[in-house]
């Protein structure tokens, strides 16, 4: 362990810091009556599991209102497993990375089978083995460790982004290779307190969120500064090495809004196997290099729906950024000329009045279109 001679040199000051500075208000870390769980006392694995998956790509302050809404709508594993995927996606709308919602829904059925009906309210019947949690879709080693330590106060190590940063600085480890990752996992396993594992892991997360931040860590207030190699010998900001931001490729997308005689709008449900599977969207697709955006819309609607349209007025265009790419959307209102719409590249189609669109789960980019469409239809009193 080098400069860190014994786990207690980290555990003791960190746990003492946590006793005074811990974020004890995080709702899923508390008992149903709002009190802090005692050492070794179990709390709801269901509530923690949902929160941990929401936190995988999203900040705590964004997650909390979503988690509260979720617990109102699906208060138990049984209620979640019986829910329609569409209602689950509707609740997830705005959190992004929708495959997480799909996977939670799939996992709820696997877990219920494991637990048996009516046992899901009893934390002691839930799995406590890391491998079992990791066998569920969308659960990695750190998420599994966090669920087990938070719910059951068992010593399961974690290595999320915050913890990785703290360990990289404590050890002055710059790189991100598989070998380095293995080393950090070993460090996490060595360090975890067997007496207060729940508090220890939470203390690491709280330290990473409030003191050992990505930029300008507040080292003078850090309980670990005496054993932190990056602080003692270097500039902590240099650890771990920053990953180069790759330039995201940009792809143009043409979207066609098709109305029928009743003023209803055509929407389609994405294939279950696709990204954002099960969500609704407006028809359209990628522009090829040699065509205009109007031609793209005509072609895509012919290929996806089997209909012929005349592309009319442009409603809006905007850029939307994803993790690895940017999409530039151009949305036109179209006149439906011929053909009966068929779901040639989707699960199903639906004609919907514009004021009912918000009853369906749409990816974030499509919600921009809806809000512009509502202005166009209702504020501009310009019904297509
Ligand atoms: S001393 Fe600074 S760099 Fe080291 S763990 Fe504490 S906050 Fe992070």
The secondary-structure class comes to: alpha+beta
Q: Any ligands, ions or cofactors bound here, and which?
A: iron/sulfur cluster
Beta-sheet strand percentage? Answer: 5-15%
**C-alpha termini separation:** 69 Å
How would you describe this structure to a colleague?
The chain is globular and about 75 Å long. The chain starts with 7 loop residues before the first helix and ends in a 5-residue tail after the last helix. The protein folds into two domains: 8-238, Endonuclease III, domain 1, CATH 1.10.340.30; 250-379, Alpha-Beta Complex (Nucleoside Triphosphate Pyrophosphohydrolase). The strands form two sheets. It has a four-stranded mixed sheet, sandwiched between helices. A three-stranded antiparallel sheet has the order 3-2-7, with no helix packed on it. The chain has 384 residues and is an alpha+beta fold. The chain has helices at 8-21, 45-55, 60-73, 77-82, 85-92, 99-115, 130-134, 141-152, 161-170, 178-191, 197-210, 229-233, 293-305, 364-379; strands at residues 250-258, 265-269, 280-281, 284-286, 308-321, 326-338, 348-352. It binds iron/sulfur cluster (SF4).
């Amino acid at each position: 362990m080098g400069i860190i001679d014994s786990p207690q040199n980290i555990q003791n000051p960190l746990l003492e810091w946590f006793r005074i500075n811990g974020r004890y208000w995080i709702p899923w870390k508390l008992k149903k009556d709002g009190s802090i769980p005692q050492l070794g006392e179990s709390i709801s694995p269901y509530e923690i599991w949902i929160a941990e998956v929401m936190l995988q790509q999203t900040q705590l302050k964004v997650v909390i209102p979503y988690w509260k809404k979720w617990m109102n709508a699906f208060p138990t594993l049984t209620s979640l497993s019986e829910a329609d995927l569409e209602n689950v996606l509707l609740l997830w709308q705005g959190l992004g990375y929708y495959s997480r919602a799909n996977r939670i829904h799939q996992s709820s059925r696997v877990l219920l089978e494991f637990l048996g009906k009516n046992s899901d309210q009893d934390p002691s019947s839930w799995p406590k083995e890391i491998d079992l949690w990791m066998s569920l879709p969308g659960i990695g080693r750190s998420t599994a460790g966090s669920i087990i330590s938070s719910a059951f106060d068992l010593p399961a190590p974690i290595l999320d982004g915050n913890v990785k940063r703290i360990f990289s600085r404590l050890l002055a480890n710059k790189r991100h290779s598989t070998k380095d990752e293995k080393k950090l996992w070993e460090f996490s396993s060595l360090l975890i307190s067997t007496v207060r594992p729940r508090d220890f892991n939470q203390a690491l997360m709280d330290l990473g969120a409030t003191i050992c931040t990505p930029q300008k860590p507040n080292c003078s207030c850090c309980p670990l500064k005496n054993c932190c190699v990056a602080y003692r010998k270097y500039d902590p900001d240099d650890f771990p090495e920053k990953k180069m931001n790759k330039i995201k490729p940009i792809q143009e997308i043409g979207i066609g809004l098709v109305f029928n005689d009743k003023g209803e709008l055509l929407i389609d449900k994405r294939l279950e196997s696709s990204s954002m599977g099960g969500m609704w969207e407006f028809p359209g697709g990628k522009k090829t290099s040699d065509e205009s955006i109007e031609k793209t819309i005509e072609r895509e609607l012919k290929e996806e729906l089997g209909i012929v349209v005349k592309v009319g007025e442009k409603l809006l265009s905007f850029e939307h950024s994803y993790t690895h790419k940017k999409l530039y959307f151009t949305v036109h209102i179209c006149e439906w000329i011929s053909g009966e719409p068929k779901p040639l590249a989707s699960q199903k189609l639906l004609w919907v009045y514009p004021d009912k669109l918000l009853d369906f789960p749409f990816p974030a980019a499509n919600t921009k279109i809806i809000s512009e469409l509502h202005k166009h239809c209702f504020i501009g009193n310009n019904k297509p």
